[in-house]
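Why should sequence recovery work at all? Because a backbone constrains its sequence more than one might expect. Tight turns favour small or flexible residues, buried strands favour hydrophobic ones, and helices have their own preferences. The token representation captures these environments compactly. In the example below, the structure is given first.
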């Protein structure tokens, strides 16, 4: 039996049926609308495990100390709900709206919070107490009073301005989470996946980030005072230069310096061109993954099929460069000049091209065997192309699901037959763009 269960008095929990729940929720809807017969939903210290709340408006309801293990709360509106010390282990909260909810001392271990809205939530310490009838107070739920989000799935959740000090978030999937201005002092984020997360202005003072994966994470104005970054993988993260100077990142995994390459960069480029021209019989493939190539001039070079995964190419000069079927996954290409580059069949999955110039670049599919059945599309899934200059670019048949094109200049661009599911085109200039047969399901900022 777990420590959690050892501190629970089963007798105090009231179990209700799905039918009773539905009746209570109907009264709550009337309460929210100010209708006769309405009554605020109060499920404090109830056992609601495995029950279905899907799509209901539960704003301002009371779930303090409730058991909601494996409950289905998909798409629920839980704004300002009181969920103090509730047990939500393995609950399905996909797409739930939890703005300003009180989640102090909650247990979300193994819960699914994909795309949940959790702005301004309170996930700090909290413990529910009860009287034993003799004037003594004992814990009703948790032995420890820290919020537990361990092993939860929180992909794409928006937790801006949340208060999460001391929270236990170990081994949690926080991919693409919005964590702007979040209070995470002393939080345990060890071995969590923070890939693509936005930590602008977040306070991680004394936080444990041991072994955390932070590829593509945004660390602008982030406070890392006394944070434990041992083994934290920051390759591909957007890190303020001031942050590098202010905090000790020596124990974190960082991009490699060209001094460790073993050969001059130009020799590596020359041997790669020979390798590509001879089909691998001579020369050597350029293996530049995880290297820092900031401001390097590689314009006009043949880097087709080269490995640049997780490389830093910030402000690099790459005009007219051949990147045919090159691997640039997770690469930092912010403000790079890629004008007129041949990037057909390139892998740019989760790459960051914010502010880059791609005018005249070709990112369409490459024909491997002279047959349409052998087309190899470019991969821009979840890539950041924010405010890129890409007038006339070809992205025909590209895989760009979840890509961010906000503020991009895409006039006369060819996006035909592209996979653009869930892509963001807000404030993008799409005048004259070809979107024929493009998959725009879930895409934002584009007329369909």
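From this structural description, the recovered sequence reads:
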């Amino acid at each position: 039996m777990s420590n959690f269960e050892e501190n629970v008095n089963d007798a105090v929990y009231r179990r209700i049926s799905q039918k009773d729940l539905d009746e209570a929720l109907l009264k709550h809807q009337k309460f929210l609308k100010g209708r006769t017969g309405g009554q605020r939903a109060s499920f404090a210290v109830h056992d609601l495990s495995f029950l279905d709340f899907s799509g209901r408006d539960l704003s301002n309801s009371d779930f303090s100390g409730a058991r909601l293990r494996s409950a289905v709360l998909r798409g629920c509106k839980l704004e300002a709900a009181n969920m103090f010390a509730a047990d939500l282990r393995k609950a399905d909260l996909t797409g739930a709206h939890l703005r300003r909810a009180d989640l102090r001392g909650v247990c979300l271990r193994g819960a699914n919070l994909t795309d949940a809205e959790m702005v301004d939530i309170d996930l700090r310490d909290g413990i529910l107490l009860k009287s034993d009838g003799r004037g003594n107070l004992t814990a009703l739920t948790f032995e420890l009073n820290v919020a537990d989000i361990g092993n939860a799935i929180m992909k794409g959740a928006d937790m801006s301005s949340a208060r999460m000090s001391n929270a236990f978030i170990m081994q949690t999937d926080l991919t693409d989470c919005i964590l702007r201005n979040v209070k995470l002092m002393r939080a345990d984020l060890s071995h969590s996946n923070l890939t693509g997360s936005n930590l602008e202005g977040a306070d991680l003072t004394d936080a444990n980030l041991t072994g955390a994966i932070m590829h593509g994470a945004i660390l602008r104005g982030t406070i890392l005072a006394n944070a434990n970054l041992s083994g934290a993988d920051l390759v591909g993260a957007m890190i303020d230069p001031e942050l590098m100077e202010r905090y000790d990142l020596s124990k974190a995994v960082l991009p490699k310096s060209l001094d460790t390459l073993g050969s001059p960069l130009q020799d590596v480029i020359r041997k790669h061109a020979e390798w590509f021209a001879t089909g691998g019989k001579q020369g050597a493939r350029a293996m530049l993954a995880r290297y820092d190539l900031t401001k390097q001039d590689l314009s006009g070079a043949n880097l087709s099929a080269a490995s640049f995964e997780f490389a830093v190419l910030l402000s690099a000069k790459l005009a007219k460069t051949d990147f045919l079927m090159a691997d640039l996954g997770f690469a930092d290409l912010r403000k790079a000049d890629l004008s007129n580059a041949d990037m057909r069949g390139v892998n740019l999955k989760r790459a960051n091209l914010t502010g880059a110039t791609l005018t005249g670049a070709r990112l369409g599919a490459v024909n491997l065997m002279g047959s349409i059945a052998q087309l190899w599309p470019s991969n821009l899934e979840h890539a950041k192309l924010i405010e890129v200059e890409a007038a006339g670019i070809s992205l025909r048949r590209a895989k760009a699901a979840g890509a961010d094109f906000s503020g991009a200049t895409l006039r006369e661009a060819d996006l035909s037959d592209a996979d653009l599911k869930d892509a963001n085109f807000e404030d993008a200039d799409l005048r004259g763009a070809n979107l024929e047969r493009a998959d725009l399901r879930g895409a934002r900022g584009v007329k369909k």
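A few observations help interpret the result. The chain has a mean pLDDT of 91.
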